[in-house]
Amino acid sequence: VQLQASGGGLVQTGDSLRLSCAASGGTISGHVMGWFRQRPGKEREFVGRIARNGASTYYDDSVKGRFTISRSNLKNAVYQQMNSLKPDDTAVYYCAATTIVGVRVRESDYRLWGQGTQVTVSS
Question: How many Cβ atoms sit within 10 Å of the Cβ of residue 80?
């Protein structure tokens, strides 16, 4: 399975953005899907994840209440709606997939990675 993230761009503080992660070469229905980000000068960090059937989500405290992850196994895609964006959300965002169930927040738990998409939030 290959993952392709898209939807990044340059926005202003308070704006919204929706990232997409499209899968090809296989189905994501059996995968927990996660989003990570790498802010300038920092390590890549966990943002959130969604269960295989979409029934549950889990978010880092830094984005809780502002970001929402959803998925469509029919469309073989995962989405991340980002609202009330702040300059501190500026980062390259990555989608990732794992077959390990449960709340997985470590990079090493995810086997499949998409290329990143840049999100820049200006003040």
Answer: 28
